[in-house]
Amino acid sequence: MPFSETQPHFTINEWLRVFAVMWLTYLFINVNNPISNLLFMSGPAFLRHHQPIEIIGIIGLSIGYALMMLIGLYWAGRTPAVKALFAKPRWRDLWYILAYGALNLIFQSIGNFFGDMIPTQVGVNLNNSLNVSQLDSSVVFWTVTGRQFFLTLGSQLFAVALFLAFWQLWHHYLPNKPRVATVLTYVVAAALAGILTTTPENSGILQNMLSAGFAQVPLFWAYRRSRNVLVPTLAAFALNRVLIFVLLLVGL
Questions:
Q1: pLDDT of 197 higher than 80
Q2: Helix (H, G, I), strand (E, B) or coil at 227
């Protein structure tokens, strides 16, 4: 199997350890509790009385989110399993970062196109109000920047773990049909990763499967090529931050 030198090959019990920690962590920050309320503080509330302790808390909690995703892998396979997702950087990774950025825009556009065709109930997402306020204050921008990197890393660790689990599953049951197994891995892992972006505020399951699911395909491709989760994370983070930063400068 490709990437056998770095890919975690776990038993079912070990995969259960990985996803138990990841899933509980994901659920915890998407339900109403003091920690999630601080992590996703509303923009108006932050602008009214932001204190250094709140900024540290928001960024610290985002770091904790990414670390919890790694803890699930560490529990299952110790240090080698964690290192397997962070291959030694190579110069070619710069190309993968650029390619992922372009592919991410294309696949996100395709996903949004098909996702918008699904009727869904539109609601106000209060958790994104801090993001909306980025153009109103440089403090908000840099706070969200620190938060965004680790939230992106944690979410992509979750998605890559799904990809590796289904890669192992399909190639185990279809050893003589590697291409079919690979296609099934991409389709099933992307669809499930898209579904798992569903929250009470973003409740359209089918719409999420299409819009967010398509966006996972470049992530899986970039990881397979680089074998380093930081490559797509840096690309997605830089693309998002540069665009917002340009808008912030124009506004100023």
A1: no
A2: coil
Q: How long, in residues, is the chain? A: 252
User: Could you tell me where the DSSP H helices lie in the chain?
Assistant: 12-28, 34-39, 43-49, 52-83, 93-115, 129-132, 138-173, 178-195, 205-226, 230-251
State the DSSP string of 40-91: T--HHHHHHH--HHHHHHHHHHHHHHHHHHHHHHHHHHHHHHHHTTBPPP-T
Contact 147, 40 (CB under 8 A): no
Give burial (CB, 10 Å; 0-12/13-18/19+) of 239.
Answer: middle
**Please, which residues bridge with residue 228 across strands?**
86
pLDDT tens digit string along 171-184? 888 989 989 999 99
**Token pair belonging to 43:** 């923009």
CA 1 from centroid of its chain's CA atoms: 25
pLDDT at site 246 = 65
- φ, ψ for residue 10, nearest 5 deg: -105, 160
Closest residue by Cα to residue 127 from 58, 221, 229, 196 = 58
Phi (first) and psi of residue 228, to 5 degrees: -140, 115
Q: Which residues of 121-160 are buried (b: 16+ CB within 10 A; e: fewer)?
A: eeeeeebebbbebbeeeeebbbbbbbbbbbbbbbbbbbbb
Tokens 């970039």 identify what position?
A: 222
100 within 8 A of 108, measured Cβ to Cβ: no
pTM: 0.85
132: amino acid identity, one letter: V
Q: Which two tokens stand for residue 22?
A: 């990841």
